[in-house]
Amino acid sequence: MAAMDLFGRRWALRILWELRAGPIGARALLAQCEGLSSSVLYQRLRELTSSGLISPSSDGYELTPMGADLGRALAPLDQWANTWARKQEQERDERADQPGRPPERD
């Protein structure tokens, strides 16, 4: 399976992201990923395990060394996303502060 195909599957990157700080059990992953169904979670866990990015542990699931390498590769994207989100919020605040302009709805 090509990496981009795997990463493009719903919830795959989010699951990997949640595992970045250490092992997590399936129930905790479900709780941290609002809207994720248990069937999709277990399917993604199987795929990520078979791809060598995560492995089962006594505490649930954890990143393999290759999975941890992916986390380091994604760190610049996370940094960019945080900068982008702050800029979006700042622009939204600036527009809301303009007189005579109604506030935007999300």
From TrEMBL:
PROSITE patterns, alphabetized: HTH_HXLR
Pfam family, one: HxlR
Keyword Repeat: no
Skewed-composition ranges (Basic and acidic residues): 86-106
HTH hxlR-type domain residues: 1-89
InterPro entries (alphabetical): HTH_HxlR, WH-like_DNA-bd_sf, WH_DNA-bd_sf
Keyword line: DNA-binding, Transcription, Transcription regulation
Region feature (Disordered): 84-106
Stored PANTHER family: HTH-TYPE TRANSCRIPTIONAL REGULATOR YODB (PTHR33204:SF37), TRANSCRIPTIONAL REGULATOR, MARR FAMILY (PTHR33204)
Name of the protein in its database record: Winged helix-turn-helix transcriptional regulator
Organism this protein belongs to: Streptomyces fildesensis
